């Protein structure tokens, strides 16, 4: 295809960089694949699209439209997968542009599967041991939804809710006034207050230095893979915390520079939502961060078996070991558990 003479290519070049028309892009993609089928050629699309002068955000939208068009055309989406850096930088720009909001409570809701193991030797790679007296199970009864409403005012009440299965009702309770951690947020092993979260740096290098402060220099030099895994998970933890938009953007920019990550293309998370995935592998387990391509916010962090390991020899590749799906994260005025 000649991008100088193709009419759709010319039309794409004329589109505003900040908001390309998805219908135009879909038509372009569809016709390109029609030509590929007629000629018997399989042609990657992002290469010519990159030559149209589209910005990264526009290219990201192209990839999203491609992912929607491909199933109907019987093509595999990996031809047009964005690079991990492109995904993270696009997410950073969207995070940075988000408005600053506030409310009475910071509300989070996470749905996760409960992993049970007998001993450390039985634990799947990368998972902590949960001594619950049983083997790991994957039944609906082992899915729990946990919600928290952290009061912005210290004089107000913080609330918790737990739903142990889809068939049960949420159990709502007030936080114990003596519970030191009820109004704090976990971030790289530290429990921070709302005030401390607001003071986190928005510059990537400064945020990275803060996140790595608990680790001695010798540990950093000898365990680079573990440090990357720790940083990889920070986008998830910060998605659950009421930080400034620039802090969340800085976390994505840190992840954009992490070595060893790979783009996973289109993924469906544990609760059936579509997203764009980025993964990093360690000890036979791939840690997958899933991002909503409409909002460019984190919606899930899951561990998937890539290959059987010494501590989990019977694991089948592709098995979802653990997931933490974010159902809600933001300010609200009322305590109302999800249905």
Structure description:
This protein is α+β, with helices and mostly antiparallel strands and 339 residues long. It has two domains: 7-80, no CATH class; 94-332, no CATH class. 32% of the residues lie in helices and 23% in strands. It has eleven helices and eleven strands. It has helices at residues 7-14, 22-39, 46-50, 56-73, 84-97, 194-198, 204-212, 217-222, 224-232, 234-239, 245-256; strands at residues 105-113, 143-151, 159-163, 171-174, 185-187, 190-192, 261-268, 274-282, 285-291, 298-305, 320-332. Residues 1-79, 123-141 and 310-315 have low confidence and may be disordered.
Roughly what percent helix? 25-40%
Number of helices: 11
* Gyration radius from CA atoms, angstroms: 22 Å
What are the secondary-structure elements, in order, as H or E? HHHHHEEEEEEHHHHHHEEEEE
Strand content: 15-25%
- Uncertain stretches: 1-79, 123-141, 310-315
Q: Structural class, from helix and strand content?
A: alpha+beta
How many E-type strands?
11
Question: Sheet bearing the most strands, described?
Answer: 9 strands, antiparallel
Shape, please? globular
**What is the mean predicted local confidence, pLDDT?**
73
Q: Give the termini separation.
A: 51 Å
Number of separate structural domains: 2
Q: Please give the oligomerization state of what you see.
A: single chain
Largest sheet, spatial ordering of strands: 4-3-2-1-11-10-9-8-7
């Amino acid at each position: 295809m000649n991008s100088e003479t193709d009419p759709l290519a010319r039309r794409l070049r004329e589109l505003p960089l900040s908001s390309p028309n998805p219908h135009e892009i879909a038509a372009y993609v569809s016709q390109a694949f029609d030509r590929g089928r007629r000629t018997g050629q399989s042609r990657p699309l992002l290469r010519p699209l990159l030559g149209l002068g589209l910005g990264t955000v526009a290219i990201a939208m192209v990839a999203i439209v491609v992912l929607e068009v491909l199933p109907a055309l019987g093509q595999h989406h990996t031809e047009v997968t964005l690079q991990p850096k492109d995904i993270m930088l696009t997410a950073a720009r969207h995070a940075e542009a988000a408005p600053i909001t506030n409310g009475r409570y910071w509300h989070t809701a996470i749905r996760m599967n409960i992993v049970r193991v007998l001993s450390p030797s039985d634990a799947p790679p990368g998972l902590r041991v949960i001594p619950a007296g049983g083997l790991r199970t994957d039944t609906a009864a082992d899915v729990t939804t946990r919600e928290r409403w952290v009061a912005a005012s210290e004089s107000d009440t913080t609330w918790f809710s737990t739903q142990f299965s889809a068939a049960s009702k949420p159990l709502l309770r007030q936080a114990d006034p003596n519970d030191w951690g009820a109004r704090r947020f976990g971030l790289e092993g530290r429990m921070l207050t709302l005030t401390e979260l607001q003071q986190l740096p928005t510059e990537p290098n400064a945020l990275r230095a803060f996140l790595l402060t608990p680790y001695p220099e010798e540990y950093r030099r000898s365990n680079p893979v573990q440090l990357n895994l720790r940083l990889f998970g920070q986008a998830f933890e910060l998605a659950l915390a009421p930080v400034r938009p620039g802090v969340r953007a800085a976390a994505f920019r840190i992840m954009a520079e992490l070595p060893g990550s790979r783009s996973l293309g289109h993924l469906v998370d544990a609760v059936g939502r579509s997203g764009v995935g980025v993964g990093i592998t360690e000890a036979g387990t791939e840690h997958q961060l899933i991002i909503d391509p409409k909002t460019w916010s984190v919606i899930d962090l899951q561990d998937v078996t890539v290959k059987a390991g010494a501590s989990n020899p019977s694991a089948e590749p592709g098995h979802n070991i653990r997931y933490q799906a974010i159902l809600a994260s933001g300010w609200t005025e009322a305590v109302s558990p999800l249905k």
